[in-house]
Amino acid sequence: MRIETETQLIIKKGNEYLIGAKFMPKDPEKDLRWSISAWDAWKTRDRENAERVARAVGGEIWLFNPIAGQIRKAV
Questions:
Q1: Which residues contact 18 (CB under 8 A, 6 or more apart)?
Q2: How many CB atoms are closer than 10 A to CB 46?
Q3: Three-class SS of the chain
Q4: Does residue 7 carry a pLDDT above 80?
Q5: Nearest to residue 59, comparing CAs of 11, 21, 8, 15?
Q6: What are the tens digits of pLDDT across the range 16-73?
Q7: What is the maximum alpha-carbon separation in the chain?
Q8: Alpha-carbon gap, residue 58 to 67, rounded angstroms
Q9: How far apart, in whole angstroms, are the C-alpha atoms of residue 63 and residue 8?
Q10: Cα(37)–Cα(30) distance, rounded to whole angstroms?
Q11: How many Å apart are CA 70 and CA 45, to the nearest integer?
């Protein structure tokens, strides 16, 4: 296994990471679920999808490698 292949894109807003949303949220601000742990975060390797979600929730894209425990802002 190559450690770099485990890096995922996650969404951070303030000090919290997006976990997900209730199915078909009526009020996205209330129905989004967040966690202070990057390990709980919703993850994707699809940059376009991550950008779409970040725009929708007003968050930023971060890189997270759970194997190495490393996190940094995506550029």
A1: 10, 11, 12, 32, 33, 34, 41, 42, 53, 57, 59
A2: 10
A3: CCHHHHCEEEEEECCEEEEEECCCCCCHHHHEEEECCHHHCCCECCHHHHHHHHHHHCCEEEEEECCCCEEEECC
A4: yes
A5: 11
A6: 999 986 655 566 566 788 999 999 999 999 999 999 999 989 999 999 999 999 999 9
A7: 41
A8: 27
A9: 6
A10: 19
A11: 16
Band of residue 3 on the pLDDT scale cut at 50, 70, 90: confident
Distance CA 36, CA 48 (A): 24
Closest to 45 measured CA to CA, from 31, 32, 64, 19: 64
Phi-psi sector, 24: left (phi>0), alpha (psi -120 to 50), beta: left
Beta bridge partners of 70: 65
